[in-house]
Amino acid sequence: MSTTSVNRISGMVSGLDTDSLVKKLMAAESVNLIKSKQKLQTLTWQSDGYRQWNTDMFSFRTNTLFNMKLSKSYDTFATTTSDSNSLSGIASSDVIEGTYSYKVTNLAQSATMKSNVDIDTTKALTDTATSITIKATNSTGTQVSADIAVAKTDTITDVLAKINSAKDSSGNSLGVKAVYDSSLKQFIVKTKDTGSLTKLTINATPDKVPPTPESTASFVAGQALLDSTLGFNNSADGDYSNGFSKVSAAYVTVQRTSATRVPDTNVTTNPNYVKGSSGLVKMNTPSDATDGASITVDGTAFNIAAALQKDWTGKSLTDVVNSLKSVTSGTTKLSDLVDISTNGTDISFKSKSTGPSSSIAISAGTGTLKDAVANLFSVDIASHAATDLGNFVGTGVTDPNNPNVAQDAKINFNGTNLTSTSNSLKILGVNYTLKNVNATAQTVTITKDIDAEVKNITDFVSKYNDMLSKINTAVNETVYKDYQPLTDDQRTAMSETQITAWETKAKSGLFNNDSILKQLATKIRNDMTSKVDNGSTYNSLASIGINSTSYADKGKLYVDETKLRAAIQADPDAVKSLFSQTSTDTTSNAKQGVVSRLYDDFQSAMTKLVSKAGSSSNAPTDQSFVGKLLTQTNTFISTETDRLNAKEKNYYAKFTAMETAMNKYNSQSAYLTQNSSSQ
Hints:
This protein is an alpha+beta fold and 679 residues long.
């Protein structure tokens, strides 16, 4: 038994089996130690079992009971729409029943860039290391940006991974998703947020100032990557926003044909041009040549007379554009509010503001050469009243060449126009999801969903029955007194199957007649069958069709769904209060609903379990009743083990002394015998 080194002479003289004798002597001495180890094992099983009970009760209380305290378990409603393809809804407990009209006019969209391009996914995208800059604006208008380094070895898969994991300098995600579909041959980048405030811009990371040969090469490679390799080839300066061209959610442009003004009703948000004439003329004489010529952008007027009153002979439209860009109104530049550009034959004006409030108004003025001003913008003044070349207002129409522009969701609900940055919104207690635009008004009907409430209640009763059955089984489980925890010697002599079978019986009845569990079972059975003071005849579970059918069921409840449905239809508020009603009365639980009572019952039982067996979180310093017994038993085992080791050592010492004495006696006897023989 002892591991201590002892000088032993084991039966060499006496012929006795000393080890066997000592083992038998120690077996008698070890009875208390064996019983203590078995007690320790039983206490450990009980401690673990109590803590598992605590865990199970906590789960039942925080999930099943807590959910049944909430209104959503009883205030259940169904949402039915006349067009399920355009809208769906999930009603919450604060919904208002009724039938409502709706019409979805816009779905919320993210800022999206998409190109049709065939990319070899196995090859590098660029021969020169480069970088692209992505700027993304979320639904709240917050912009983040990041530079994406593209190595010479990067494939489209590598670049996609870099874009999707990109963060700005503060560690904020860009909030974009990039994909390439080799089947569709489409490269797509889009913001994860939706709504008109979302924006997306990608361009080649600007060259260094001053530039170096390497930085310039990188910049050129970045432009080529975006323009050709990734298929965004509609922008001359390599700045791609929400699609191929530099557009925003909605914008306004001035539009003309070669010689005839297009009617205002035809103005759209397409990139439209003011056509130039076949040649430019002198406009610097007489002195009043361009008097009154102006451009008004979003209400800010710019006098362009001086910018136009020049000799344009031999000049190009680029010179005219540059002159217009320099025009100011106070401290505001015309180019701050409107993009002015030319492709060599046309002049294009495009407002930087968006939406229906965007506007551009152009006047040829009253000067001597007002016809020349009009001709510069390809307008036939003779067909136009006065000198005003027209007001052009942003319509908010999506650019047909760029159908993926960011926009808000819009719905007319029961006569009220609503806007949302996403396709999910809550109206009158219903969480709606907009799916498609519908051409005509539809209806959505909210009705009481009795089936859902019946299911919630029957599910609760089933889980209650399971918990009660588990408690009843534990407190009535058979105790097998002849099956104590196995000793080490017993375990060594048995197979795994035998050990499992033995320990199953040894663990049986650990909680037989346990006071905490018995009290809990009695309490919850009483609380589930007692009446609730809720001011209704539906004041007990039995009154709504929930009760036991036999004493032998030990409190198990059965649900009569027909009777339950009738009670819900007759008085839904009473059924709800029967379960979930709360009360501040600390002297009686008569006004508490049955679920509220159970909620308190299980909390009380859990507190008692912690007091008796502790919790897993405080195991090292467990001061519970069982915890203290474990500590005491461990202390006794340690002390008893030391005593037995000393006892065993003492036995061996005595046998060794006996062997030594017998050996000495034998030696002396042999000596005497030898001397006697010699005489």
